[in-house]
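Anyone able to model this chain together with N-carbamoyl-L-aspartate?
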Amino acid sequence: MSSTLTIRTPDDWHLHLRDGEMLQAVVGHTARQFARAIVMPNLKPPVTTVEQARAYRERITAALTASQGPDAAAAFTPLMTAYLTETIEPAELERGFSEGVFSAAKLYPAGATTNSDAGVRDLAHISAVLACMERIGMPLLIHGEVTDPAVDIFDREAVFIERQLIPLLQRHPALKVVLEHITTADAAQFVAEGPANLAATITPHHLHINRNALFQGGLRPDFYCLPIAKRERHRLALRAAATSGSTKFFLGTDSAPHPRGAKESACGCAGIYNAPFAIESYAQVFEEEGVLDRLENFASVHGPNFYGLPLNNGTIQLERSSDSDFIPGLMELENGSSSPTTLVPFHAGETLNWRLKQAQWRASAA
Ligand code: NCD
Ligand code: ZN
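re: yes, here you go
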């Protein structure tokens, strides 16, 4: 059994980096393994203008410089997204896309998840925006859940596909769409059988846990995220999709840090912090499925090809873990202030098969 694994430097096609102290605490975890990341715009206030995206991109680079140094910042490219509201102007999106500031736009159905209140209530209200994106080839990234409280939370993704996504693709047949963080067999099948301009990201946590994890031995807020984990048969379908070799599925962690107190509270926030061991988490899945040789395409090739971006040139190395390589239960992260940010990482207390080798910065800039 081989003890090292080298792959082309991967990218994360769905990531929450936050802002301020949290940003500074977490950004290094992503940059040590990924060359680029699609950065979600659900800040408060949301990122809706070219100027806001440019300023946020600068804050990300500054936070990375402050926490890990200039080499790290030079080796990592944040790809920015616009947050679609019902009043956003097509011209603003087009300008941001043509100036290379916006890589994509994110659709949050209003009320679907963290900081989605400014999102879209009715897709009919943004039809001009969608037509513009279709025309210029700008990808639409979708949080695919209906918000109708009458729909069971475990059914909201499947119902979204029927009620919203199918009609949307009929109205805009050439629109590039990424169905983000898919959680169901329904979504996996829909994307696999759909047109070439439809793809999906899959998170590490939805490949590892099913909904039982939320209740194992008690209420487990660290496994609460949106879309919520589903039944085991859905997890198995996601593993099959991710490891199938299909170019329609690629890596997107949806790493979504919330301070420990905000998770472990009477109304805990949705989001799993998986960035610290994300590539290791995916490697475990691909090895368990017996197709470790397909990890690279999923992590480093399908995403850039869909977005029309070049592949990274650098590589990362993983090496086999030893038993003592377990993942900490808590991480106390420096953030530029006097008190650290405390986060519970995904896989806390577990040992994964692989560990990222470079202790520091990716040697070869991607
Ligand atoms: C994300 C967050 O916290 O911003 N939470 C989550 O559970 N995934 C938002 C999102 O992607 O839904
Ligand atoms: Zn997300």
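The longest helix spans residues 50-68.
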